[in-house]
UniProtKB/TrEMBL annotation:
Superkingdom of this protein's organism: Bacteria
Tagged with keyword Signal: yes
Provenance organism: Aestuariibaculum lutulentum
Database matches in PANTHER family: ALPHA-L-RHAMNOSIDASE SIX-HAIRPIN GLYCOSIDASE DOMAIN-CONTAINING PROTEIN, C, PUTATIVE (AFU_ORTHOLOGUE AFUA_3G02880)-RELATED
Protein name: Alpha-L-rhamnosidase
InterPro entries documented for this protein: 6-hairpin_glycosidase_sf, 6hp_glycosidase-like_sf, Bac_rhamnosid6H, Bac_rhamnosid_C
Ranges of residues in domain Alpha-L-rhamnosidase six-hairpin glycosidase: 197-522
Keywords: Signal
Keyword Chaperone listed: no
Signal peptide start-end: 1-19
């Protein structure tokens, strides 16, 4: 895994010039041309996972496709991959590209094929089991990305096909009594060519891998817009964006995909509609705007949100009852695991309303909108009259603590610290970690990260999943192997709600919370003034001996290292941009 991470980070540092249209297009109306910020690279498969024939009669020279290629067909005859069918049996292979990617594949065909070469069936999969499945089987789907299809390939040339999130590809020859020679098979990797400015490293490699996996999960979803998933949910879900945006703040710093996506969904959602039809997601839009401004300090962008922000806050203020409880309309939703607990949803929505008005007040003060500041103050005062119960829900407990409706210590002791990582979720797990930190239980949160997100790595994950239940790990096969008869297919057998079986996305940006959390609470970077003008450094190492890393600010990198001394105190060294004020807490210089 370590070598793969290094390769991917190196790819992210490759510089490119912005492509220009040829002169013959200069008279074209620019409104007819859509550009992209994405880069394309071609990845050679790392191994052959499985093939239908081990005898060499129907599949020959399969190892040839593991050699880096040129992408160019030629007239040579060589020991290329050969797949042959007879009248009875059909044959194919499964390739592993080493880690999850977003894109498709390129197939290069050499001399010696029929005209056309034949029909291939292509299957993309995030797990080996998924790539071996048929559409309709255990939730396998062609919903948001076509991952199972047939194509006719040329006798001599190349063809690029597919657009999905995948790590594995299965290629089968379809026609009976046919044969195909293949020179190269490469993954067509489409991503934003941006540096990983933020970093995190400590004496626990498991935490290092988790931090990087969360960063990479979000990176893959930073397409032309910020998606939730790269196989399924290739869409903009505003609430789901919040953990992604916090990860972007911690890893990449400013990137145009965030304001571009926020503006897209705002344009698609004229008031009084709610973003994605979900009341809480419009509140998350407010919280993202606040956090984005604090980390990036783009006042001109914030000013453009004033009209919509004011209208939304006024709309939300009408959703508070006389007793102070929320009455938010639209779809009432927090996350999927809590979706059947109405009392937990009420507690979460009430807490989000309070957090949203507090953020709205901050933004309105910055914008000089005194009337909206007063509206927010009155709404906060009214909402504080009512305190919902935690309803046996870690999601509700976390948000109640974050809103200071329940003390974080009580929330942690009575709910969040109970039963280990049971009843966590990949989305709201981020807020559970924040609430535990607010209670001072940093070690408990670190342990949760190791156990819950680490379990996905144990099962072969290279990106974090749409959802995960720690009970799924029992007797489960890794996702990067053919499932043995005595093991459970963790991808095909589990899942719920909209993510049953293979429909379950194994690369979901909302699951990246530990990356942002580790940078904030362990590395200790707390942004307290807009644009990172003031940062409080407050590390909490728990059982770690040392931690070091970098944090991107609008003025350059903040570099830090913390070392635990024999007496238990922490020694901190740091290097900062001169424009930034730093205050050190819980450490010695």
């Amino acid at each position: 895994m370590k070598n793969v991470f290094t390769i991917m980070i190196c790819l992210a540092f490759v510089l490119k010039a912005e492509a220009q249209l040829p002169p013959v297009f200069q008279s074209m109306d620019t409104a007819l041309v859509r550009s992209t910020s994405l880069t394309t690279k071609y990845i050679t498969p790392s191994r052959i996972v499985w093939k239908t024939d081990e005898s060499g009669e129907f599949i020959k020279n399969s190892e040839y496709v593991l050699k880096p290629g040129s992408g160019q067909a030629d007239l040579r005859r060589n020991d290329f991959l050969m797949i042959r069918n007879d009248s009875i049996s059909k044959h194919g292979i499964i390739l592993d590209f080493g880690r999850e990617i977003q894109g498709g594949i390129e197939i290069v065909l050499p001399r010696g094929n029929m005209n056309p070469a034949g029909t291939l069936r292509i299957r993309f999969g995030e797990s080996v089991a998924e790539v071996m499945s048929n559409v309709g089987e255990n939730g396998a789907t062609n919903d948001h990305a076509i991952r199972d299809f047939e194509i006719l390939v040329p006798k001599l040339g190349r063809i690029n096909v597919g657009e999905s999130g995948f790590r594995f590809v299965r290629i089968d020859l379809v026609d009976p009594n046919s044969r195909v020679f293949i020179k190269e098979i490469s993954a067509v990797f489409r991503y934003r060519d941006i540096p990983y400015k933020g970093s995190f490293k400590c004496n626990d490699q498991r935490l290092n891998d988790i931090w990087m996996t969360g960063a990479y999960t979000v990176h893959l979803n930073m397409q032309d817009y910020l998606w939730d998933g790269i196989k399924r949910d290739r869409l903009i879900w505003v609430g789901d964006m919040h953990p992604e945006v916090m990860t972007i703040n911690s890893v990449f710093g400013y990137n145009e995909v965030v304001p571009k996506t926020l503006d897209f969904v705002k344009k698609q959602t004229p008031l009084p509609n709610y973003m994605n039809g979900i009341g809480s997601y419009s509140i998350w839009w407010i919280l993202i705007q606040r956090d984005w401004y604090y980390y990036q300090g783009d006042l001109e962008y914030l000013k453009k949100q004033k009209e919509y922000l004011t209208g939304l806050l006024n709309q939300l203020s009408d959703k508070i009852k006389e007793d102070g409880s929320e009455s938010l309309d639209g779809e009432r939703f927090l996350d999927w695991p809590s979706s059947e607990n109405k009392d937990a949803i009420h507690a979460g929505l009430h807490s989000l309303m309070l957090l949203g008005f507090e953020a709205g007040k901050e933004l309105s003060e910055i914008l000089g909108d005194k009337e909206t500041v007063q509206l927010c103050e009155a709404s906060v005062k009214k909402l504080k009259k009512h305190t919902p119960s935690m309803a046996g829900s870690k999601q509700a407990a976390a948000l109640l603590a974050m809103a200071n409706l329940v003390s974080p210590e009580v929330s942690n002791k009575s709910m969040l610290a109970q039963n280990g990582v049971k009843n966590m979720s990949t989305f709201y797990g981020y807020y559970m970690l924040i609430a535990r930190a607010m209670a001072g239980d940093y070690q408990g949160a670190i342990d949760n990260i190791r156990e819950y997100w680490g379990a996905m790595l144990d099962l072969g994950a290279t990106t974090f999943w749409e959802d995960f239940n720690i009970d799924w790990k029992e007797n489960a096969a890794r996702i990067d192997e053919v499932v043995p008869d005595n093991k459970v297919d963790v991808h095909g057998e589990y899942g719920d709600y909209c993510y049953v079986g293979y429909r379950h996305s194994l690369c979901h940006g909302w699951a990246s919370g530990p990356t942002a959390w580790l940078s904030r609470y362990v590395l200790g970077v707390n942004v307290v003034d807009p644009g990172c003008k003031k940062i409080v450094i407050e590390p909490h190492l728990g059982d770690l001996n040392w931690v070091e890393g970098t944090f991107p600010t609008p003025y350059g990198l903040l570099e830090l290292r913390h070392e635990k001394l024999p007496n238990g105190s922490v020694k901190t060294t740091y290097k900062k941009p001169q424009e930034i004020e730093v205050e050190l807490v819980n450490s010695n210089e």
